[in-house]
Write a structure and sequence with these properties.
alpha+beta; 4-stranded mixed sheet; 2 helices; 4 strands; 24% helix
Length: 66
């Protein structure tokens, strides 16, 4: 079975099986990655990092697009 790590907006992470079942929630991507290696005896296929183009912009810049 394949696994992947998905980073959430608050920098926590979840470990997800290939069928979409969430196996656990962790305080960071690195903890989820290590847990997958140790408990599932497999490296995650990929790590899905959270990204939002609005996180790094100021309120003034965001309002110009509305």
């Amino acid at each position: 079975m394949d696994y992947y790590v998905k980073e959430l907006a608050d920098k926590r992470a979840v470990l997800v099986a290939e069928d979409g079942y969430t196996l656990g929630e962790f305080p960071s991507v690195s903890v989820a990655y290590l847990t997958c290696c140790e408990e599932c005896h497999a490296k995650p296929s990929y790590v899905e990092h959270y990204y939002s183009y609005l996180d790094g912009t100021s309120d003034k810049m965001e309002s110009t697009y509305m």
